[in-house]
Amino acid sequence: TRVGVVRESNPDERRVALVPKIVPALVKQGVEVVVEPGAGLGALIPDEAYTAAGAVLGDPWSAEVVVKVAPPNDSEIAKLSAGQTLIGFLAPRNADTKIGALKAAGVQAFAVEAIPRISRAQVMDALSSQANVSGYKAVLVAASESTRFFPMLTTAAGTVKPATVLILGVGVAGLQALATAKRLGGRTTGYDVRPEVADQVRSVGAQWLDLGIEAAGEGGYARELTEDEKAQQQLALENAIKGFDVVITTALVPGRPAPRLVTAAAVEGMKPGSVIVDLAGETGGNCELTEPGKTVVKHGVTIASPLNLPATMPEHASELYSKNIQALLELMLKDGALAPDFGDQVLADSCVTRDREAPAAPAAADPA
Ligand code: NAD
């Protein structure tokens, strides 16, 4: 089997789908890895590092399996032909998803977003590996935008109180943000609508903010709140947020616009100089005053909405993503040949261009 590693077409997308470190293991399994010249440059990986690891340079788009990071654009899809397999972030639930075009082209496409959140698939879970990067970097963005220290400082010139940091939405990114803010010396609090998150929040040394609204949905995700619950939540948060120096929001509901957690009134209630980092900008933002992709100051509060934070840490983000891709590839290979078994829940769920009418016997779900 030939696996093609493409050079991402968006210059801001600095990640690469396979780093050289992974190549020897694939080659050992009978895979030929074809790397597009310059594919690793965004992540500071020269072509020679790939060839030294056993890959060849060439056209990745003609390989049996094409691996990518960002969803393909139209001209990239035009380079694919029927029977080829594509693996990457494919934004299957976005309004502008290319799944239809991939289906029409006869491409067998696997969306890493659709990998089930079960223990066995954790090693392939690219949403989680990249959310870890986002959660970490969001805290650094907040610290750098802040006019205040995170840690408590006791100096000859006086004592500085630690920053109070509130994380709204404590999934993978939120949990990493709590841990990172704590390491920087902040006083951390976490909030979520899934009650089982409380213990995880406490386990990273943070306080749990309980607003009495529970909204656990399917597959370990949250469900969308009812209109009444939304109003109740916004009001409760408006009161809670006032006391915080830093608010980082990561709340998402699969396939829905980002929940509006922070109203304009809540921003107005914060102390000038406070910072909000909104990680939900891509789906509209968790804060009413967020401008996706921008950093703005409203009522004296800095509101940053960075998009694609994992691409700002391309080295480690690519390394983690490569491990996810390697594990998914290995699940599809038998004696070096591509032979995906769609009786496997991970492959059945993540293959987004197959007809779903007759799924094979589902594996037992074990959400962790
Ligand atoms: P996500 O990115 O979909 O959402 C982020 C967080 O926002 C979630 O915790 C969600 O509950 C929260 N949220 C949504 N609406 C909200 C609202 N109105 N108010 C407050 N918070 C709100 O979540 P994720 O990081 O992808 O994690 C989803 C789930 O998958 C979690 O249960 C996580 O623990 C689980 N998970 C399991 C595994 C595994 O075992 N294999 C791996 C990774 C993640």
Which properties best describe this structure?
about 375 residues, 6-stranded parallel beta sheet, 17 strands, globular, disordered C terminus, binds nicotinamide-adenine-dinucleotide, NADP, NAD(P)-bd_dom_sf, oxidoreductase activity, AlaDH/PNT_NAD(H)-bd, NADP binding
Structural commentary:
It comes from Nocardia aurantia. This is NAD(P) transhydrogenase subunit alpha part 1. Its EC number is 7.1.1.1. Residues 143-305 form the Alanine dehydrogenase/pyridine nucleotide transhydrogenase NAD(H)-binding domain. Keywords: NAD, NADP, Nucleotide-binding, Oxidoreductase, Translocase. The chain has helices at residues 23-28, 47-52, 74-77, 99-104, 126-145, 172-183, 197-203, 227-241, 264-269, 314-332, 345-350, and strands at residues 2-5, 32-35, 56-57, 65-67, 85-88, 108-111, 153-155, 158-160, 164-168, 187-191, 207-208, 246-249, 275-278, 295-298, 301-304, 333-334, 337-338. By secondary structure, it is α/β, with parallel strands linked by helices. α3 (74-77) links the parallel β4 (65-67) and β5. α5 packs antiparallel against α10. The protein is globular, with a radius of gyration of 22 Å. It binds nicotinamide-adenine-dinucleotide. Nicotinamide-adenine-dinucleotide (NAD) binds at residues 117-119, 122, 125, 127-128, 131, 168-174, 192-194, 197, 220-222, 225, 250-254, 259, 261, 368. Nicotinamide-adenine-dinucleotide is lined by residues 117-119, 122, 125, 127-128, 131, 168-174, 192-194, 197, 220-222, 225, 250-254, 259, 261, 368.
Helices, by number, come to 11
Query: From the helix content, strand content and strand pairing, which structural class follows?
Result: alpha/beta
Low-confidence stretches: 357-368
Mean pLDDT: 95
Which series of helices and strands comes N to C? EHEHEEHEHEHEEEHEHEHEHEEEHEEH
Q: Percent helix among the residues?
A: 25-40%
The total beta strand count reads 17
From the N-terminal CA to the C-terminal CA, the straight-line distance is 33 Å
Mind summarizing the main beta sheet? 7 strands, mixed
Keywords: NAD, NADP, Nucleotide-binding, Oxidoreductase, Translocase
Domain Alanine dehydrogenase/pyridine nucleotide transhydrogenase N-terminal: 4-134
GO biological process, one term: NADPH regeneration
GO molecular function, one term: proton-translocating NAD(P)+ transhydrogenase activity
